[in-house]
Fold:
Amino acid sequence: MSSPKANAGLEDAARLLDLVPFLISHQGISLVDLALQFSVTTEEITSDLTTLWMCGLPGYTAYELIDLSFESGFVTISNAETLQRPRNLQRNEALALLLGLQTLREEVTTEDGDLAISITQLIEKISSTIDESASHRFKAGTSSSSLLRAKISKAIDDRELLKIVYHSSVQDEVGERVIEPVDFTIHNGMEYLEAYCHRSFGYRTFRLDRIISASSQKSIPTAENRKQGGTELDNENRSFFSICISSRARDVLERFSIAHSDSDINAEISAQSFSPEWTIREVMSFGGEVIVSSPKSLRSAIRARAWRALEGYSHQNG
Amino acid sequence: MASRKSERLINLTMALLATRRYLSKSEIFRTIDGYSGNEESKERMFERDKDDLRNIGIAIEVRSQDPLFDDEPGYRIHPESYSLALGDLSGAEIAILSLAAQAWRGAALSESAQSALVKLRSLGIESDFDSLPALSPKVHIDSSNFLPLAQAVAERRIVAFTYLSSQMVGEERRIEPYGLGSRKGVWYLVGRDLTRDAIRTFRISRIIGEASVEKNRETFTVESAFDVLHYLDSNLFVEKYRARVKIRLGKGHTLRTGATIISSDGDFELLEIQYQNEAQFLDQILWHADDVIVESPIFLREQVMGKLNNLVTTHE
Structure:
C-alpha cells in the first residue's frame, strides 16, 4: 500500500483496462455519466480516452488500434475485443462485496428464504476469489435492520412523515411519535437518525437500533393527540459537568464521548450532555468509580437516586 | 509521462492476452509499442511493467519456449486468469451485489466497492431489482486502521500496533492476525498475541495511531475451522449467567429483551435474565437505578447494594 502519487500511472492503467469492457457494454454513454461511474472528472475521462485511442495490438495500424469516438460528448468503441471481458476482482473489491453481502445476509428476514440462499451462494463465490477461508476470516455482523433503514431512506427522499415506535433510553420508555426524518449519522460506531419530532416540537436524534418500528403517516397529529415528552435529548439544552475517575478510565471516557488523547485522567475532567437524566444514569452505572464534582445539584440528584434504589433493597428484607 | 507508461502497459496487456503462444522478450521488445532505449533499459522497463501489472492483479505466465532450448523464456496472460470469473450471474444476483457494494457509502472501502460495481456492470447484464425487497444495508467501520488490518489478515502478515489498555496505557502489540469481525457496530481483530503467546481480541477503535503491517511474509497457520464471528460470539457474547431481577412495570426495556417473566407483584415483575459479562451486567443494573432490584444471585445483589452505598457516600 504505497502512496497513491507513486502509483498514478498504474492507477490510470487499471482504469483504462476497466473502461474498455464498460464502454463495450454501454455504447453511446455520455462523457458526464462515464466520469461519474469511474469517480473522476470529465477532463480526466477525456484524457483517458485520448490515451486509449493510441493503444492496440502489435502492428498499430488502424486495423489493430482501438477505435473510439467521443467528440460528440457520447462515447462509442470498437476493435477492442481483446479487452472485452471485465478484469478479475482485486482483493479490496472482493472484500468490499463480501462484507457488504454478509451485512445484507444478516438483515434478510427468515421468510425470504430464496433471497437468503442467493446471498449465501454469492458470498461463497466472492469469497473464493480471495481465498478458501476468506468468508470465515472476514465477517460483518449488523447492528440494525436494513428494512427499517430502507423505509426511512425512502421517507427522507420523498419528504414524508413517519410514525415510529421508539425506545427512549434516557427515559427508559417506549412510545410513539411522528417525525420528519432528515439524515443518518454515525457516532461511536452507532447509527442515528436525525429528525424533526412533532411530539417534542424540535429536532431530535434517534438511535436506529432503538426504533422498534416505523410506518408511513399521512398527516401531522393534532395538538390534543400529542403527548408532551418530558426531559428529552435536546440539542439546545446542553449542560456541562465535571467528573473525577478512580478506575476504568478508558471505559468512562468512551461512555462520556471524551477523546482518549486530550484528557489527563488523574485530573478533574469536564464533560457535557444533553440530558441530566442521561448523566445521572451513566454516572450511576459506574457505581462510584466516577464521581461528579460539580455542579452541586447533579451531585445531590445522584445521591438521592442511589438512596432511593437502596430503599428497594431494604423494603424487601423487611 | 504517466500516459506514456499506461499506454505501454495497455499495449503489453493486450498483446499478451491476444497471443495463443508464449512471446519471447525479444519479440515483445520488437513488436510492442513503447519499449525503447538500449537492451538494458528495455529489460528494466519490462521487469517493472511485470511487477506493476501484478500489483493490479494481472498475472503474467512465464514458460520456457522450447523444451530443448530453455534459454529464452516466453510470456503470456491467460484470458481465464485475467477476466472476472464469477460464472453465470442472473439479473437478480447483479442487483444483490449492487446492494452489497452500496453498503459502503462513505466507509473505508467505498472506492473499491464502486470499482467492483463498474466491473459487474461491464458484464452487460441488466440488474433486476424488482425481485428484491427494499433493503439498504450499511457497513460501519469505526477506525482508519481497517484497511491495513484487512491486508494483514488477507495476506497472513504479522501486524504491530499500540493498543489502549483499560488503564489508559498504550501497549505495544505484535499479532498474527486471524480474522476481522463486527458485532453491534464494533469491529474486532482476533489473533495470536506474540508476546503473550495467546489468542486475544482487540477493538480496532482502541488502536492508537497507525497499525503497521510487517513486510516479511512470515507464515503462520490459522486453524481451518476458525470463524471470526463464532470466536467473538463464544468468547465475548456468550450468555453464561442467570439472574432473577425485579423490574418496575413499563421500565427496563433493554433488560426485558430475551428475558422470561416469572411472576408479577404490584408495580414490579420478577424476570429471569441471561447475561454474558458480570461487570457489564452490573453496570446495566446500576444504570436502571430504582427501577430494578436484584434478587439472585446473592453476590450480584450484594455488589449492587455495595455500589449504591458507594454512590451515596461519594456524592455526599
